[in-house]
Amino acid sequence: MHFTSERRLDDGVVERAFTLGDLPGILWTPAAAPAPTPLVLLGHPGGLETMRPRLVARARQSVAQGFAAATVELPGSGDRPRSAVTDGARAELRRALAAGEPVTDDLVDRLVLPLTEQAVPEWRAVLDALLALPGIDGPVGYSGGVISIGTRLAGVEPRITAAVLFAGSFVPRVMNEEARRVTVPLHVLLQWDDRGNDRRASLDLFDAFASKEKTLTANMGGHTGVPAHAGDAAAAFFDRHLRTGS
């Protein structure tokens, strides 16, 4: 892991950009980090610079709780090499939504599964590097989307002890099988009127999770209409599960 820049935000948050090979990311830590410092991995739908204001807000909340937070650029987003398959599927999805046509299972698979296949090993490699840094010892939580990435990561990565998943993306049906391997505490956020999300698929995925503790919070409104109190509930969830000894 190579740090390429560092700046201190006005509330004492230290923000450092990094690369791991050709994978770019950002790490936020408290200026005076407690020991051990839990870590929250911030998932997002891609486009690190586009998403930066929302990611910084989420990172500030994590740091205010005494956690470190980190994110990476998704495959095919930002300056990373494009995928003809994914770009074609994304364009086809936009056309279907604009025309009011159904989104087929085949289209969802072509859009989401290659992204998940590449992103999850990258997240695990970044986690290796982050936990090797002085002071960042875990426990580790995952927060955000794409929900299929979060589902697979929570199912295969034993260092993740709790997850907040954003149900804001289409879900391949095969993810229901993978969800049965997820046993960590879960808090799932669903926007009820999200046009870019198949509500039924998200509910089926939630039902498939094997976690003994799992909560679904549904709010009215579209994709960007998440109320502030939903973020507060997610923060309280991590406060319960990432504190040492919790």
Key phrases:
single chain, about 250 residues, Rossmann fold, 9-stranded mixed beta sheet, 7 helices
Description:
The protein is an alpha/beta fold and 246 residues long. It has a single domain, classed as 3-Layer(aba) Sandwich (Rossmann fold), CATH 3.40.50.1820. It has helices spanning 48-64, 84-99, 105-131, 147-156, 175-179, 199-208, 228-242, and strands spanning 2-8, 13-20, 23-30, 37-42, 68-72, 136-144, 160-166, 186-191, 214-219. A nine-stranded mixed β-sheet has the order 1-2-3-5-4-6-7-8-9, sandwiched between helices. Helix 1 links the parallel strand 4 and strand 5. Helix 3 crosses helix 4 (147-156). It is globular. The model has no long low-confidence stretch (mean pLDDT 90).
Q: Report helical residue fraction.
A: 40-55%
Low-confidence stretches: none
Instruction: Tell me which CATH architecture applies here.
Output: 3-Layer(aba) Sandwich
How many structural domains can be distinguished in the coordinates? 1
Q: What about the largest sheet?
A: 9 strands, mixed
Which outline best applies?
A: globular
How many helices? The count is 7
N- to C-terminal distance: 30 Å
The SSE order reads EEEEHEHHEHEHEHEH
Strand content: 25-35%
CATH superfamily: Alpha/Beta hydrolase fold, catalytic domain
How would you summarize this macromolecular structure in one to three sentences?
By secondary structure, the chain is an alpha/beta fold.
